[in-house]
Amino acid sequence: NLQVNGKSSLLSKSQKKRNENVFIVDKQIHLNPCSRWLIGRNGVSGAAFSPQNRHIFATIDREGILRVLDHKHEKILVSFKSYFGGLTCLCWSPDGKYILTGGEDDIVTIYNWQQETVIARCVGHESWITSIKFDSVLTGNDVYRFISVAQDTQMIFWDFSIENIVPPKRHSKYEIKNSRNSSNGGSDEVIPAPRRDEIATIQPISTVVAHNYPIFDLVVTNDCIITCSNFDVKIWKRPSKVLS
């Protein structure tokens, strides 16, 4: 359930029953919020706009579906299903090319939403992931640095470069793109999660046990990294060298 600013049109009741994943827009009013969209069948657990396009944003929900949507044209561009369980956090890469999600499967997943593919899974956490952030200072020259925290009290650092990701032999971009559920047709089709032997796996570059209690939030700035648990907040010094 999202409340937004912008012009919207009202869908008929027959459209609501036929398609649960499209925008269902309430009657337009003159004050903010001017419209309300119902997306999917379960609660939305996160949403974020693309840093490169103000009309494109992504949502995640408790059913484990990542959706990329066009706010201006009110349509779903692509949808992905998690490997297991609900999704709890998401993050866009600074260039808007990739989306990261974390959730109840203890995995960080990297998506190329424009090519409608799952790039890789990042394996290292032992509990639900609660926050993911890109490090813009150490991201450059097609090398991406990001950080994740989870209920396992760990803060994990990751790097990935498309050129250095080697997919398993069984991996097939064509199979992943075309194995989606096409029962409903159109933009509400959900691309299923590939099997473990179909997708590349990324290992951490560094792991820190940051707290004695589950971590629920993460902030990455140019000067420091901030982690928060239910009982304390920690500020971490960070390197400032840009990747070359």
Strand order of the largest sheet: 4-5-6-7-15
Per the principal axes of the C-alpha atoms, what is the gross shape?
A: globular
Tell me the fraction of residues in β-strands, as a range. 35-45%
Number of strands: 20
Q: Helical residue percent?
A: under 10%
- Low-confidence runs (pLDDT<50, min 5 residues)? 3-22, 171-186
Q: Roughly what is the average pLDDT, rounded to an integer?
A: 81
SS content category: mainly beta
The helix tally amounts to: 2
Radius of gyration: 19 Å
Topology pattern, helix = H, strand = E: EHEEEEEEEEEEEEEHEEEEEE
Major β-sheet, in short? Answer: 5 strands, mixed
Termini separation: 42 Å
Structural overview:
The protein is mainly β and 244 residues long. Helix content is 5%, strand content 43%. A five-stranded mixed sheet has the order 4-5-6-7-15. A five-stranded mixed sheet has the order 8-9-10-11-16. Strands 12-13-14-17 form a four-stranded antiparallel sheet, with no helix packed on it. A hairpin with a 4-residue loop joins β10 (107-112) and β11. The longest helix is centred in the N-terminal third of the chain and has 6 residues, at 13-18. It is globular. The termini are far apart. Mean pLDDT is 81; it is low at 3-22 and 171-186.
